[in-house]
Amino acid sequence: MRYSAQEQKELFERSKALLAQKPLPTEEAVIQELIALITYHEWRYYVLDQPLLSDYEYDQLFRELKRLEEAAPQWVFPHSPTQRVSSDLTEGFLTVEHLTPTLSLENSENMEDLQDFEQRLRRLLPEDLAQNELAYCVEPKFDGGTIVLVYENDQLVRAATRGNGEKGDEITANARAIASIPLQANFSKYGIQKVELRGEALIRKDRFERVNEKRAAAGEALFANPRNAATGCLRLKDPQQVKARSLEAFVYQMGFAVNAEAENVLDQFESHWDILACLADLGFKVPTADKERALCPNIAAVGDFCAQWEAQREDYAYEIDGMVVKLNNLALQEICGYTNHHPRWAIAYKFTAKEASSVLETVEYQVGRTGAITPVAKIRPVELAGVTVSSVSLHNAEQIAEKDLRIGDHVLVKRAGDVIPQIVKPLEDLRTGEEQPIVFPSNCPVCDSLLERPEGEAVWRCINPDCEAQILERIKHFVSKGAMDISGFGAAYVEKFYEEGLLHGLADVYRLDYEKIAQFEGFGQRSVAKLQEAIEASKNQPIFRLIYALGLRHVGSGNAKILAAVVSDIRELKNWSIEQLSELKDVGPKMAQSVYDSFQLPAIQQLLEELGELGLNLKQLEEEKPQEGPKEGPFANKKVLFTGSLQEMSRSEAKKRLLAAGGIAASSVSKNLDFLVVGEKAGSKLKKAQDLGINILTEAEFLAQLDGQS
């Protein structure tokens, strides 16, 4: 609890006394007291959902505070509840970089998946630890919008959306309007000077209904579901509207925490459960212990708790689409580590998706940028988990045959993970005999070229590189955010310029006739100038983006970075053999073959020369170069962490000497740590390192090895 029973009694009585005493004197002490009282009542209302005052009484206190602040503006403090909402409208949203990546979660659907998850964890852990029973923290997977909060010196200084996981839209003004997000929190109590938190902004189901009732009365369009209302609300330009929608925020993760010396202090907590207890103590809204979240001693208990919540999900006040299962011990989390996509120590247990029946009316065939032919079922529109679904991918011919789907079938449709719609099966009992088999085409639906199905693949492909559909899709991919990231150059522009004869291939993106574009309906001089500016800026993108933008099969953005790091010029890839490519980290046989074949093509080689002549960067930038230390010496390429008080030098000086010797300064204890250098009063890091079998050095031993005396 944030407040003791006695403190809460006193705060309530003092609130009543001040209400009876109005108007209050204009004094700094009175203003500070009102701030504390209102902050307490907001916590009771928005976090605990157990208000002590009526709405009217709360409003009276709030108005009194506002009156006093207007009379004495020198005493308007940034953590005052009146400062949650700015009177200024936000013109736009800046993109900000998160302090640590905000990753996704791996999904599971049943007990078998959970057991597989635990077996993977045991394989990642040292043998002695893997034999122990593993405990898990299980909490609701809220269906809202992810938010990332940064506090510095106990003050909320920034809020952002999840974005792409590395960067998000800055929404600080809107976050300040969410009353369950403290504007000030006593992180100093835990020795934390700067911290990054992750949470979910959402709307209670009952409040969502009231919001829609108001919109209906005003003649406005209704929101489809609470999630859409919440995520859309985060990007409103007027924080007053954010407040009006009654958004709340659950906080569920502390991803980054340092002290005044910029040292990691997350290791003061032994478990994720401890972190949630800390956040609750500081006044954040977190899943309630032993009710909304559970500490499960084993994976069987996890399954039971997830099943319990799936059965009661409709009775819960908030929309949830599953439960999040996290390995509770933080030291074990560190050992298990992360992939580029998700933490290995956590998994989402997704509830059975909501299902509905519809009618399969016809099948259309789409051609992708690599020539892949994707059948798309057109079904009678149906409401599914708050969204109207009319198109469902059937993936390939094999899936159609496997499910025995027919035109005219009544089909069972669900949204996998409440996101991607899919046809589960035909409802065979409803067949009348008039249903027609689905005949997969033998020719491309766009260019009529004969389709081919490569050996070992399930996908039929159009192999005509001049197929209009492929050209369009390749260009759309090339200019997209994940590739060359040309702002404002969307699919509609690609189609328009292609139709008008301005685009025939990728290089034409940099040969556009801007004077002609300015004459098109809907294009003004300003919009054309912005497009030209964005296209010119993309010429300086790092080459990993260009590699990905080429749209090579089996090459994702992460693989593109691996390829970019091993060449000084993108054109050098034509000299790499399949064997050399296969030796690179995370490059498998299929990808190696695809890269080799692609860079041997005269068309790709000619395209790169054209792009170079048009001014595109084809050379490796400094940011893409792998950072390597010296190859010799006791600490060359070794990860070293310092803990405790050093006597001969400061910790910053020790890190400088380590880096000069080719070492790597680590931030926490993990199985990948090579050395822990301990000074006086070494704490929990020493114990963790000993448990993991890490090499321990005293300060004297560290200096001796630096000087080559051992």
From TrEMBL:
GO MF assignments: DNA binding; DNA ligase (NAD+) activity; metal ion binding
Residue sites binding NAD(+) per the record: 55-59, 104-105, 139, 162, 200, 326, 350
Residues at which Zn(2+) binds: 444, 447, 467
Domain spans labelled BRCT: 630-710
Its EC number(s): 6.5.1.2
Statement: the UniProt record of this protein carries the keyword Cytoplasm: no
An annotated GO cellular component: cytosol
Gene3D superfamilies assigned to the protein according to its UniProt record, in alphabetical order: 5' to 3' exonuclease, C-terminal subdomain, 6.20.10.30, BRCT domain, DNA ligase/mRNA capping enzyme, Helix hairpin bin, Nucleic acid-binding proteins
Listed CDD domains: BRCT_DNA_ligase_like (cd17748), LIGANc (cd00114)
Keyword Magnesium listed: yes
Enzyme class: ligase
Database matches in PROSITE patterns: BRCT
Cofactor: Mg(2+); Mn(2+)
Example of a GO biological process term: DNA repair
Domain of life: Bacteria
Pfam annotation, one family: OB_DNA_ligase
Active site: 141
Alphabetic keyword roster: DNA damage, DNA repair, DNA replication, Ligase, Magnesium, Manganese, Metal-binding, NAD, Zinc
Family from the record: Belongs to the NAD-dependent DNA ligase family. LigA subfamily.
Cited function: DNA ligase that catalyzes the formation of phosphodiester linkages between 5'-phosphoryl and 3'-hydroxyl groups in double-stranded DNA using NAD as a coenzyme and as the energy source for the reaction. It is essential for DNA replication and repair of damaged DNA.
Protein name: DNA ligase
Designated gene of the protein: ligA
